[in-house]
Amino acid sequence: MLLGGDREAWRGASLLSISQLDREGVELVMRVADNARTESSLLGGKVLCSLFYEPSTRTACSFLAAMLRLGGGTMSLHESTSSAVKGESFEDTIRTVSCYSDVVVLRHPTPGAPRRASEITKTPIINAGDGTGEHPTQALLDVYTLIREIGGIDGKTIALVGDLKHGRTAHSLAKILRLYDVALLFVSPPGLEMPGTQEVVSLEEAVRVADAIYVTRIQRERFEDPGQYDSLKGSYKVDAALMATAKPKCAVLHPLPRVDEISTDFDDDPRAAYFRQMENGMYVRMALLTLILSPPSK
Amino acid sequence: MLLGGDREAWRGASLLSISQLDREGVELVMRVADNARTESSLLGGKVLCSLFYEPSTRTACSFLAAMLRLGGGTMSLHESTSSAVKGESFEDTIRTVSCYSDVVVLRHPTPGAPRRASEITKTPIINAGDGTGEHPTQALLDVYTLIREIGGIDGKTIALVGDLKHGRTAHSLAKILRLYDVALLFVSPPGLEMPGTQEVVSLEEAVRVADAIYVTRIQRERFEDPGQYDSLKGSYKVDAALMATAKPKCAVLHPLPRVDEISTDFDDDPRAAYFRQMENGMYVRMALLTLILSPPSK
Amino acid sequence: MLLGGDREAWRGASLLSISQLDREGVELVMRVADNARTESSLLGGKVLCSLFYEPSTRTACSFLAAMLRLGGGTMSLHESTSSAVKGESFEDTIRTVSCYSDVVVLRHPTPGAPRRASEITKTPIINAGDGTGEHPTQALLDVYTLIREIGGIDGKTIALVGDLKHGRTAHSLAKILRLYDVALLFVSPPGLEMPGTQEVVSLEEAVRVADAIYVTRIQRERFEDPGQYDSLKGSYKVDAALMATAKPKCAVLHPLPRVDEISTDFDDDPRAAYFRQMENGMYVRMALLTLILSPPSK
């Protein structure tokens, strides 16, 4: 279902892919997230169930905190603690948790699992990451952070850095940024390029011209040759020295957790946006829960 | 303590056994459960602790969701995650959780453990299953589902199917149904008959005449001879073909999870009541929490 | 930061050490705890995160229950269930949980970890035990219990019994009691004396003269010679027979869990204060959350 600028379309909808949103939809989320920073309770008596088939403390916590701040209640079923998640059929587990909840936040290693869940139940499903598939709420919080940090997207130059072949975060972000008039730069090791593009620039060049730099992890397990990984990771490290060559307001984002792609020596720089980005995740998720769960205003 | 039609008796009471209820008590729960389907918050600032010495995701979740919908708070201590549950004496654990909670929902493998708990503390205890003992809230949600699905209990024919010797669910349900003017049919393999009765009918005959069929699991671990189990389970399977011989409004219930006693090819039949039954569990538990915890109305 | 009798100083403050409080600060907590026994909701939409790097069901539960009773929401990250707690740097974990919460309740095996956390974030940190360091909320609930049980602290004689060398509970309590005009008696095995004091009395003598007895565990793992432990523990057991020689209103406290320092044959004696002490923990923690989180009254 298309999720655009009309709030009625959002009510009771599942959020499965960033492709459901047009630019008006993205901007509606941004406006509601701004309100969420000072919002009071709305969702008293509503119940969110987080159903995580693989761990993700940051994503899980920010959804739980978002629901609690809106006055709602939360239940968690995680792979490590729930026998149901381990033993039962996926279909029957979805039927169970959805009959007790007003919204199910689902993380699953299999691409498409959230869509399958949304076909089993009428309860809204929010995709909180489906393997190499999508992570739409991450993309929305990334855009929200970019807009807050650099004052908008149109006319900006944004560099995506890291493993752009496998990183679903970078894929979803690139998809949503294409709704804007933006110049994208791709910085990635040979063999890890963004699918569908051959243009790659060096990290040094990207840092010099970008209005924002979005850094992602290069995951060791993607490499057959560990030596290759070790030689690469050093060349993709953002630190205070490198950032001395960047624009004075160039924002640095990272979905976290980081390994060592960003040096801690940069953490206190005002351009280090990644901790604010993490907090923004809570406001964007409050916005999504508000849009999906709040009753029609009179 | 007897839990009848007078709400005052319920306030602050423990629910340990279905034998505490008379027919007026059962009907009070049904009425309050109907209200719970549209109820607003009542129990703000009250705390429910779920204390599970063995896993039961469905029962735990439905109690948590029930409390959250009523505006209350929840804490969970489960065997897998809590050192207290593992190491401390049962008595001291009950004293601990009950001093922090307004109600304790207790599942324990030992029959009588909830009663023992209720003797240690003044905090109400709800029995959420005590081994081969009882599971009174399951029996109440079963009756609630039967009433909603087939329009009442009096004058109806209800078949109980499965291992009726060991299944506490079937025992509690039979006990509560005897408060009504009902014909009960028992369908069980040789050696697994309902205690105190020798009348057994075939599944085919039961399906033909029943107004509702209550199917339970035949548990493999009860059989010394695995071959015997394998030969039996096929003969106790409810599927679309068999249900073609049943009454057009015959409801099929199951406490879930199912193994293969009910074929998924029957799931979309309007007579398949087991998923609605699961949701009803939340409303019945909301009713019980309301009766036990809500302050006297002025 | 000093936490005294002025409520403004408490708002948004971290509670790291009992040394932050003067006597006016202690008495403010006691007054707010008294109010908490009948208090209604205050903290709707606020979020507490309990972050426990080692298990402590009692402390964790009483904080969760305290927050829920005040109408707030709770999230728990415990070592056994959270990958973040296991894998990420302490600094980044603190940044994560604190950006989603209004207060972080932290237990950590390393002394000073709560102070380190409070330097990383502006979110208030409450020390819920840092190894051999402090456990300030336990000391406050101990004092609160003493005041309720024996009518005040000034002019009283209070005996501390057990391993006074290693027990942080006894250390913190002694520190806070020195704010009062109190006589302290120390009962401990040779080698396990309270640091900075050589005066030790026998358990029999202490019991005869004390207005209150605070018993702690003697931990087996502190002894190199298990035989020495076995010979000691019997001589430090409070039971009904011994308490027959005590004052008729002498209160017996214990931070729990107990092993066998207090015989269960004393549990029903009105002087057995340890279960009331446990419940008081919830009210004291409600008081602390109220002081730290509630908005300025108009």
Automatic annotation (TrEMBL), chains A, B, C:
<protein>
    <recommendedName>
        <fullName>aspartate carbamoyltransferase</fullName>
        <ecNumber>2.1.3.2</ecNumber>
    </recommendedName>
</protein>
<dbReference type="GO" id="GO:0006520">
    <property type="term" value="P:amino acid metabolic process"/>
</dbReference>
<dbReference type="GO" id="GO:0006221">
    <property type="term" value="P:pyrimidine nucleotide biosynthetic process"/>
</dbReference>
<feature type="domain" description="Aspartate/ornithine carbamoyltransferase Asp/Orn-binding">
    <location>
        <begin position="154"/>
        <end position="291"/>
    </location>
</feature>
<comment type="function">
    <text>Catalyzes the condensation of carbamoyl phosphate and aspartate to form carbamoyl aspartate and inorganic phosphate, the committed step in the de novo pyrimidine nucleotide biosynthesis pathway.</text>
</comment>
<comment type="pathway">
    <text>Pyrimidine metabolism; UMP biosynthesis via de novo pathway; (S)-dihydroorotate from bicarbonate: step 2/3.</text>
</comment>
<dbReference type="Pfam" id="PF02729">
    <property type="entry name" value="OTCace_N"/>
</dbReference>
<keyword id="KW-0808">Transferase</keyword>
<dbReference type="InterPro" id="IPR002082">
    <property type="entry name" value="Asp_carbamoyltransf"/>
</dbReference>
<dbReference type="GO" id="GO:0006207">
    <property type="term" value="P:'de novo' pyrimidine nucleobase biosynthetic process"/>
</dbReference>
<comment type="similarity">
    <text>Belongs to the aspartate/ornithine carbamoyltransferase superfamily. ATCase family.</text>
</comment>
<dbReference type="Pfam" id="PF00185">
    <property type="entry name" value="OTCace"/>
</dbReference>
<keyword id="KW-0665">Pyrimidine biosynthesis</keyword>
<feature type="domain" description="Aspartate/ornithine carbamoyltransferase carbamoyl-P binding">
    <location>
        <begin position="14"/>
        <end position="146"/>
    </location>
</feature>
<dbReference type="InterPro" id="IPR006131">
    <property type="entry name" value="Asp_carbamoyltransf_Asp/Orn-bd"/>
</dbReference>
<dbReference type="InterPro" id="IPR036901">
    <property type="entry name" value="Asp/Orn_carbamoylTrfase_sf"/>
</dbReference>
<dbReference type="GO" id="GO:0004070">
    <property type="term" value="F:aspartate carbamoyltransferase activity"/>
</dbReference>
<dbReference type="InterPro" id="IPR006130">
    <property type="entry name" value="Asp/Orn_carbamoylTrfase"/>
</dbReference>
<dbReference type="InterPro" id="IPR006132">
    <property type="entry name" value="Asp/Orn_carbamoyltranf_P-bd"/>
</dbReference>
<dbReference type="GO" id="GO:0016597">
    <property type="term" value="F:amino acid binding"/>
</dbReference>
